[in-house]
Input
Amino acid sequence: MASADDLLQPPGLGEYPPLERLASYYNPLHTFDLAKGDQKHYQQQYADIYFLRLAMLKPAVKQAAETAWEDFEVGGETVHQVDRVLDVRQGELCWVMGTIYMDMPLKPNILDDISKDHWISALPPREKYRSAAGEDQTMIEDESGRLRLVGTGLQNVMLVTGCIVAVMGTENANGEFEVIDLKIADLPRQPQRWERDDSDDVLANGSNGKQKSDDAESRGSGGKIAIVSGLGIRGDEANSLTLDLLMEFLLGEACGTTEQQDTCAISRLIIAGNSLSEASPLPAPDQFSGKKSSKKYGYDASAYNPAPTAHLDNFLATLLPSIPVTLIPGDSDPANVSLPQQPIHPAMLPHSRAYSAVPGATEPGWFDSTTNPWEGDIDGWRFMGNGGQPLDDVFKYVEGNERLDMMESFLKWRCVAPTAPDTLWCYPFQDTDPFVLKECPHVFFVGNQPKFEQAVIEGPTGQSVLLLAIPVFRDTGEVVLLDTNNLNTEVVRFDVFDDHEEELLE
Output
């Protein structure tokens, strides 16, 4: 940041060269877009999602199991595959594939909803679903039935409802499957950098080698991507100062000459969920009055506060002439609650939507209001991210607080929302499960986490993925800058000191 001497000085007579922001090559995917209007239905059963997920991931899990357990023997008996869970026989060494189901008494259930309907006070949300009394059970299921899993093979493995696995072992006298080993799909194929962009160029221009080389030269060096989450805009003055510092930093207004050169390298801003402090929930039962209220037209000022949305719109509209923005909705944003969350409606952002692409356009606009989860290519790298709901839900299933390990498990399970629809609301898909990972990203980020964390994981065929846990900006004042040249990161923190804190520093 610039010092007071840099900012508080008279204007000079010299000429200042204009600064230009680096361009970002942005090519989003539309994996999580839902059908519009009458083509979107909610009458179908949610169980189909698990069957679809099992069918889609079975080939990869089977390949991993066959490679690991080929000619495996115990006591002279060779392991063999069983097609269905209920075909497992007692005493036979075998392996079977299926979907994990965690039977946990502390998980939410339909009785909680019934208690709310009957005006009974519901229990507060639990931090963890795990039972201290050891009542939790791990099961594997397919279209034929369920089988309880036990044994030492489960001790060091992270499992949640919805992940697809292959387990090897034997059935004991109690009808339980003693697990010796367990295999998952692991990381899928990872595309090369610029692979999708180059293939699009070939389809558009034909196999022109000169055109391809000219495009590669024109791309030049990439810039930096700023990723922030949890802005938590409330619309009051107390919430705006740190946000104004972030805005001035991105625009280069709070920087000296040297810092402005670095700011120009920031080519895109990604907001990963929870831009507003809270959505407008349904009133609690005790807030209903006994007498019928009169009908009101427009919005009711006592029930709806437009200030947070207007403040977000002004914040984006100030940034957009200078920097492109990708907006991912979150749990507290005005979007549908079930995953995948669809883009925030443009009517909510009347000033910012002027920078969006026109309906039917093939190219993205300067302002891209997207789905949650979201994936796309930026400067050739495959990005995937979400607003934090899948990770927060998985956190309740497992022991410990290592969120990077949970993010790594998402990718190795090849499912970015495994607990949907069990304890995470989602759309009842019938034809495909978009949460199944088809290609491995280069960068996987999750917003609205307690603190910034990062790690690099590697796959069996040379995949390399950067994991980023993006902190809540409202609590930490931190924004993450990712250099697309080498995928190095840095964290910029904004803070506001009051008079008492300044006296302590002195």
Q: What stands out?
A: Residues 47-69 form the longest helix (23 residues). The radius of gyration is 26 Å.
